Amino acid sequence: MIQTPDAVEIAPGTHWIGALDPGLREFDIILKTANGTTYNSYCVRGTEGVAIIDTVKASHAEEFFRRLEQVASYDEITTIVLNHLEPDHSGALPELMRRAPQAKLYISTKGQLMLKALVKDAALKYNVVETGDHVELGGRTLRFFTTPFLHWPDTQCTLIEEQGILFSGDVFGCHFCDARLFNDQVGDFRFSFEYYYQHIMRPFREYVLNALELLEPLPLKLIAPAHGPILREAPLSYMQRYRQLASPLLHNEVGANNKSLLVFYISSYGNTARMAQAVVDGAETVPGVRVSMYDLQAGGNLPFVDLIEEADGLAIGSPTINGDAVKPVWDLLSSLAVIKVRDKLGAAFGSYGWSGEAINMIEDRLRGLKMRVPIKGVRARLIPTEEELALCRDLGVQLAQHLSGTVQNRVISMSELFAQEQSHA
């Protein structure tokens, strides 16, 4: 059994002083942590002062302070940097500032409200930094890079210019605890790295790409994240992997000027399936839109989520059973929380026996996900008639037109609208 390490030097004058939490099996409710996690904090020594980069979860503060005291005294600390203000990074901050009251605290612009909410001290003083700002420690220059929404609005990264060390916060990290600390010494953590990206960073894909544009040109020798192994062997390969994960692939197949519409359905007796096919048939008549259809009964939401992330619109078909959409539909919709679907086009359709609530419920959920639902869904009682299938084809046409920018504005009279509502009553 490898013993818990003391403070560990990761470069001359720069130490890891974080905490290990090997028994943790769930993080923030949504993440499973089969190997626990680490709360990484770092101490940087210059000739004119000492900086602490991030702290640890409050429950592990004693471990943090013990390691800090091995490499610095509190009266030497001139600088405290919080790259991110979640409690697992800021938990020991109040006590650290009590022990080192002379230290100046540096946070991002967006971190101000979060700091005040976390530390209930009206007299708390801090300094706001943005990309390009820096702090001199004497032979060590800390330069700041604003990287919002990786994965909170306040997140930033901090670089030691002279050593090429990037303290990256949550980005490039993972929940994987191994006391050997360095990526070339710990166990195989690739699954944790990918899992962390999928559940934490994936909804902010465009911000990941923006951050990479900022960070990739830096002459980095080591990436020191806030969780998981310190990346000293081939650190740039982890940036490259992030770019692969964040880069859309579908446009390579459909073309930059084309749009993608996905039609999902599940059908008890084939009626909603016939409606789905009619939606597809209608959409395919509009140039510039690639249409795909998938049966949710096959199960396995992850491949579908991957497709939806890059698509421009989706239509979901479900029968109504016991006054509700069926479980596979809700499973798919709940899976969309890990990707950005805001402003994508959405629609619903389906067959029903008695009341047909599923359509409105799906539409409400799509709106709750901040998707656009401009076209009223189509419902058919039991076996769809030719007229109802024609409505489904028209739904497909309108969706495709909205996507391609060729939609015609329609003027609907109040009497027509009332007639439509009565037909669904």
Gist?
By secondary structure, the protein is of the alpha/beta class. Helix content is 34%, strand content 22%.
Q: What are the segments in which pLDDT stays under 50 over at least 5 consecutive residues?
A: none
Portion in strands: 15-25%
Give the domain tally.
2
Secondary-structure arrangement, i.e. CATH architecture of the largest domain: 4-Layer Sandwich
Average pLDDT works out at 91
Annotated CATH homologous superfamily of the largest domain: Ribonuclease Z/Hydroxyacylglutathione hydrolase-like
Principal-axis shape: elongated
Strand sequence of the main sheet, in spatial order?
Answer: 1-2-7-8-9-10-11
What do you see in this structure?
It is a single chain. The protein has 425 residues and is an alpha/beta fold. The chain has two domains: 8-246, Ribonuclease Z/Hydroxyacylglutathione hydrolase-like (Metallo-beta-lactamase, Chain A, 4-Layer Sandwich); 253-424, Flavodoxin domain (Rossmann fold, 3-Layer(aba) Sandwich), CATH 3.40.50. The protein is built from 14 helices and 21 strands. Helix 11 (327-335) links the parallel strand 19 (313-317) and strand 20 (345-352). The N and C termini lie far apart (68 Å). The radius of gyration is 26 Å and the shape is elongated. The mean pLDDT is 91. The chain has a seven-stranded mixed beta sheet with strand order 1-2-7-8-9-10-11, covered by helices on one side. A five-stranded mixed beta sheet has the order 12-13-14-15-16. The protein has helices at residues 61-71, 87-90, 93-99, 111-118, 190-201, 205-215, 235-246, 251-254, 271-283, 301-310, 327-335, 357-368, 386-404, 414-424, and strands at 8-11, 14-16, 19-21, 26-27, 31-32, 37-39, 42-45, 50-53, 77-81, 104-108, 127-129, 134-136, 141-146, 156-160, 165-169, 222-225, 259-265, 289-295, 313-317, 345-352, 378-381.
